[in-house]
TrEMBL record:
The chain crosses the membrane at residues 20-39, 60-81, 101-123, 130-149, 161-185, 205-228, 248-275, 305-327, 333-354, 366-386, 392-410. GO terms for biological process: transmembrane transport. This is APC family permease. The lineage of its organism: Bacteria, Bacillati, Bacillota, Bacilli, Bacillales. It is a multi-pass membrane protein. It is found in: Membrane. InterPro entries: AA-permease/SLC12A_dom, APC_superfamily.
Length: 429
């Protein structure tokens, strides 16, 4: 979860929702917080890595768990793609004469080369970069408020949350894209081994990460939307809505602030892209090492660099899909895996209560906590899943079908147990 996530998609969501970005954030926060409720319950029972994969495997079936893990793999493999795309969007706003593909290919070559060589960003450096992004976001908010109060455009009202002209279908479609802002809140579950009281503290941490992050995104989006309450106002400042945020930075703070803003954006893209590619390549290595994928290729480690070179190059090649996808389609493709995982986390709570939990009692509290609330969370996530971009849905469903076919092959027609997917490999990296 990056502070810059709010800036990445503001323009296209403003266009899609006709100036109701905060309303879309409220809807996605509802889906996330219901899912957080389910994560809290499952983390107490299964405080291990893998989250949706583990929960589905333990409560429903190992075969279905494998399929969910396969779909989640989609996020790991394509996260470098979205970071390369954001690099192009931010830099093209400042250097419009440079072909966009140069920024995409350049970013992919940079992070692939760093990962092949085994370069890692230290935790302390990551914390500094996040703090830097928060500082820039705070300055961005202050400048936006100043411009709204003293300028000739913008006004404060409740219209970004609700107006007579608001179309709920487009607001839900916007929410389906904004899930990208929350990806990673469940990573807290991987810290169970380092936590003194994981069954108590991990669930609380999951809630705080999602809730505080959501409040941040909601507040910043409202302030930005107040300055540009409709599409026509934003289009004057940024004709290309994908590049809205860097153009807004220029409008509110001049070229100096735009340069500082872009510095924050690039550090976010490099750090996130590097970490995403590292996790994806290590997960493929674990699958190759354990025989889930071909060991000769996916289980290979370079003798000099001690890195899974083939996997790093493969994830780099997959990131090149940024050359062909729109921002809407790219974010939807990432969120295909996220909404699928979150839907099954909610279902896992229900199945855990009905099939696994031994000391269950059908009281009003248990029925609400283990059945009604998770089912509402499932419905929210499933509905947002249905609102994803059609081309991304097609790609996601094809990926799922390939996973199902591969599962049938591995289990010899479901006559043997599917192999394990070791998500701890990617999360530890």
């Amino acid at each position: 979860m990056s502070p810059y996530a709010i800036f990445d998609t503001f323009g296209i969501i403003t266009e899609l929702t006709d100036g109701h970005v905060p309303a879309s954030y409220i809807l996605v926060m509802i889906a996330v917080l219901f899912t957080v409720f389910s994560y809290r319950k499952m983390a107490r029972v299964y405080p291990t890595s893998g989250s949706a994969y583990t929960y589905t495997k333990k409560t429903m079936s190992s075969g279905l768990g494998f399929l969910i893990g396969w779909i989640v793999l989609l996020d790991y493999l394509f996260l470098p793609m979205i970071n390369a795309m954001f690099t192009k969007i931010y830099l093209s706003a400042v250097f419009p004469s440079v072909p966009g593909w140069i920024w995409i290919v350049g970013m992919i070559i940079l992070i692939t080369g760093m990962n092949v060589a085994g370069v890692k960003v230290a935790v302390s450096a990551n914390m500094l970069m996040v703090a830097f992004q928060f500082l820039i976001a705070a300055i961005f908010v202050i400048l936006t408020l100043r411009t709204t109060i003293t300028g000739e455009v913008g006004y404060f009202s409740l219209d970004p949350f609700y107006s007579v002209s608001m179309d709920f279908s487009t607001v839900f479609a916007g929410a389906s894209i904004l899930m990208l802002s929350f990806l990673g809140f469940d990573a807290v579950t991987t810290l169970s081994d380092e936590t003194e009281n994981p069954k108590k503290d991990i669930p609380r941490a999951i809630f705080l990460v999602a809730f505080l992050g959501g409040i941040f995104f909601l507040a910043v989006s409202y302030i930005m939307q107040s300055l540009f309450p409709d599409l026509s106002a934003l289009a004057v400042v940024s004709p290309d809505l994908e590049e809205a945020s860097p153009n807004i930075a220029l409008y509110i703070g001049g070229t100096l602030f735009q340069a500082i803003f872009l510095a924050g954006a690039l550090t976010a893209c490099i750090a996130s892209g590097l970490a995403g590619q590292t996790s994806g390549s290590r997960l493929l290595y674990a699958m190759g090492r354990d025989g889930v994928l071909t060991k000769k290729i996916f289980g290979f480690v370079h003798p000099r660099y001690a890195t899974p070179v083939y996997n790093v190059i493969l994830t780099g090649l997959l990131a090149c899909s940024a050359l062909f996808l729109s921002l809407h389609a790219a974010t939807s493709l990432i969120n295909f895996g996220a909404f699928t995982a979150f839907s099954f986390v909610n279902l896992s709570v229900i199945f855990y209560f009905l099939r696994v939990k031994k000391d269950k009692t059908y009281t009003v509290g248990s029925v609400i906590g283990y059945m009604i609330v998770p089912f509402i969370g499932f419905l929210f996530n499933a509905y947002l899943w249905l609102n994803l971009d059609s081309s991304a849905m097609t790609l996601g469903l094809c990926w799922s079908a390939a996973g199902l076919a591969y599962l049938i092959y591995l289990t010899k027609g479901f006559t043997k147990a599917p192999p394990e997917i070791d998500f701890s490999e990617s999360e530890a990296s």
